[in-house]
Amino acid sequence: MTYVVTEACIKCKYMDCVEVCPVDCFYEGENMLVINPSECIDCGVCEPECPAEAILPDTEDGLEAMLEINTKYSEEWPNITVSRDPPADADDYKGKDGKMELFSEKPGEGD
Ligand code: SF4
Ligand code: SF4
Predict the structure, then answer these.
(1) What pLDDT score does 60 carry?
(2) pTM (global) more than 0.90
(3) Residue 107, exposed/middle/buried by CB under 10 A (0-12, 13-18, 19+)?
(4) Smallest CA separation from ligand 2 atom 6, residue
(5) Average pLDDT in the chain
(6) Is ligand 1 within 6 A of the CB of residue 66?
(7) Closest ligand 1 atom to the C-alpha of 26?
(8) What pLDDT is attached to residue 9?
(9) Is 16 touching ligand 1 by the criterion CB < 6 Å?
(10) Residue 66's pLDDT band (boundaries 50, 70, 90)?
(11) Less Cβ crowding at N or C end of the chain, within 10 Å?
C-alpha cells in the first residue's frame, strides 16, 4: 500500500504535505506533486494536511492511473521537502473536476 496524490493537486499545489512527511517522499512537477510509492511508509500523516483533499490511500477504488503517474514521475521529478507559496490562482482550481487535461510532465523546481 501507498498514498497517492490525485488530480485534485493539479494547479493547487499548496505544499502543506511536504512539511509533514517523515521520509521526504514528495516530488515536484510543474503544477502538481507526486509521492514515490516505494518510499512512502503509509503513515497517513499527509492525508489530512492537504487543503485540496488530493492525497488518498491506494486502497481506494479508481486510483490505478494516478498510482502509475505517481510512480513514473517520482522517478523523474526533483525531491521537495520545504513548502513554498502556492500559485497565486491556486484557489481558483481547488475542487474543480477534469483537471487531468492540465497535467504537465515538466519537472518543478524542487528544494
Ligand atoms: S498539500 Fe495537497 S494540493 Fe498541496 S501539494 Fe500537497 S498534495 Fe498537492
Ligand atoms: S503517507 Fe506518510 S510517508 Fe507516505 S507520503 Fe504521506 S506523509 Fe509521506
Answers:
(1) 96
(2) yes
(3) middle
(4) 46
(5) 97
(6) no
(7) 6
(8) 97
(9) yes
(10) very high
(11) N
CATH architecture of the domain with residue range 3-85? 2-Layer Sandwich (3.30)
Stretch (H or E) spanning 92: helix 90-93
Whole-number Å distance, alpha carbon 105 to ligand 2 midpoint, is 22
CA 99 / ligand 1 centre spacing (Å): 14
Bridge partners, residue 3, by sequence: 57
| C-beta of residue 3 within 8 angstroms of C-beta of residue 67 | no
Q: Which protein residue has the closest C-alpha to ligand 2 atom 8?
A: 21
Cell 494516478 locates to 66
- Per domain, the residue ranges of the chain are 3-85
Secondary structure string (H, E, C) spanning 32-87: CEEECCCCCCCCCCCHHHCCCCCEEECCCCCCHHHHHHHHHHHCCCCECCCCCCCC
Q: Is 3 close to ligand 2, i.e. is its CB under 6 Å away? A: yes
